């Protein structure tokens, strides 16, 4: 079938093109895309940090409506509202242990441009076009594996929900699944973008106190206060690690680092108390030089990398929708909508910080 999609090539970041999309196989689902979030991971493909074979259709925070299903699909049916998550194999050790975010085949399934069958369902005439994260949601339709699809409440506004499939799941899942703080423990987030703020809101749900937000933009720190931060620190003006120790007394129990800036990662480690834990979810370009003895061993702290919030999309996304509906996870305050043709502006606004979470409206006819 023909679809409209934003094609990414070596010559151009985005060009709207008519492409061909394969019909779903027995274990696949055809989804009409309503909206798609713009995520920093898309931008890291454009700048070469995470290479994907070109030409490609990016986008990995899609939400939409099931159009058709393969003969073996049992979890959704036509008309269901869905959020699209990342691709995972379902049969490696980590997947079988319930940690799809740690899938051993994560990189291949999400960044190599092909699905588990070794092909892409997207084509430009006779040329294969890379599928991204198993979905390529910067398009009017996506053919995806059943494991990519998460059924959600039809009462929820589909235009908002796509970012739950990656950025917001990463932040909240890192807190709720990986760090798993006890109520009353101290929590710090470094970087108050979409991932950081979703992690901070999850820390509030978990009952953390104090909740400290660190950034270099006062406007974002003000939003962090509105969303649950008990303290804020502008790290341009003061030493964040020292201020956190002053606030907490002994240092923080937990920190979440979302920037990928080596100096910030070091501050996220140094702010911890003895036996504290730091989780990092960032994609950075520069190396971090660290004295492991002084910074890690003598304080018995833990530094861990977390992918996709150590989450199973089918489990965490419906929870996040419920949290949102209950007023506990007001991520709509991070969002600004853009038309599909304004995709370049959405990326620019995300990069300069004027929009925390851009969302492209793909289907303008949809009404919540």
UniProtKB/TrEMBL annotation:
Domain Enoyl reductase (ER): 16-360
Pfam families linked: ADH_N (PF08240), ADH_zinc_N (PF00107)
Protein keywords: Metal-binding, NAD, Oxidoreductase, Zinc
SMART domains assigned to the protein according to its UniProt record, in alphabetical order: PKS_ER
CDD domains named among the record's database cross-references: benzyl_alcohol_DH
GO molecular function terms attached to this record: S-(hydroxymethyl)glutathione dehydrogenase [NAD(P)+] activity; zinc ion binding
GO biological process: formaldehyde catabolic process
SUPFAM superfamilies named among the record's database cross-references: GroES-like, NAD(P)-binding Rossmann-fold domains
Cofactors demanded by this protein: Zn(2+)
Family statement drawn from the similarity comment of this UniProt entry: Belongs to the zinc-containing alcohol dehydrogenase family.
Name of this protein: Aryl-alcohol dehydrogenase
Classification of source organism: Bacteria, Bacillati, Bacillota, Bacilli, Bacillales
């Amino acid at each position: 079938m023909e679809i409209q999609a934003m094609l990414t090539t070596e010559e151009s970041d985005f060009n709207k093109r008519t492409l061909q999309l394969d019909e779903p196989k027995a274990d696949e689902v055809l989804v009409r895309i309503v909206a798609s979030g713009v995520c920093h991971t898309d931008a890291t493909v454009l700048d070469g940090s995470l290479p994907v074979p070109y030409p490609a259709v990016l986008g990995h925070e899609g939400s939409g409506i099931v159009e058709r299903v393969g003969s073996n699909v049992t979890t959704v049916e036509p008309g269901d509202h869905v959020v699209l998550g990342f691709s995972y194999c379902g049969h490696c050790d980590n997947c079988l242990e319930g940690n799809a975010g740690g899938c051993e085949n994560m990189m291949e399934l999400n960044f190599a441009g092909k699905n588990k069958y070794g092909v892409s369902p997207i084509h430009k005439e006779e040329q294969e076009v890379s599928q991204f994260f198993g979905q390529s949601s910067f398009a009017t339709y996506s053919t995806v594996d059943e494991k990519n699809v998460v059924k959600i409440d039809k009462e929820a506004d589909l235009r908002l929900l796509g970012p739950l499939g990656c950025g917001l799941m990463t932040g909240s899942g890192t807190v709720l699944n990986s760090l798993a703080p006890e109520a009353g423990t101290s929590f710090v987030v470094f970087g108050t973008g979409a991932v950081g703020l979703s992690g901070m809101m999850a820390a509030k749900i978990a009952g953390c106190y104090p909740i400290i937000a660190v950034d270099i933009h006062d406007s974002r720190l003000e939003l962090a206060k509105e969303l649950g931060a008990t303290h804020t620190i502008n790290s341009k003006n003061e030493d964040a690690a020292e201020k956190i120790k002053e606030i907490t007394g002994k240092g923080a129990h937990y920190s979440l680092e979302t920037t990928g800036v080596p100096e910030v990662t070091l501050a996220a480690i140094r702010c911890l108390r003895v036996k504290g834990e730091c989780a990092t979810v960032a994609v950075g370009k520069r190396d971090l030089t660290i004295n492991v003895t002084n910074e890690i061993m003598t304080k018995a702290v833990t530094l861990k990398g977390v992918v996709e919030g150590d989450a199973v999309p089918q489990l965490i996304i419906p929870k996040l929708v419920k949290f949102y509906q209950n007023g506990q996870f007001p991520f709509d305050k991070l969002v600004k909508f853009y038309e599909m043709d304004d995709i370049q502006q959405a990326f620019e606004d995300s990069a300069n910080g004027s929009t925390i979470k851009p969302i492209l409206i793909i289907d303008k006819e949809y009404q919540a």
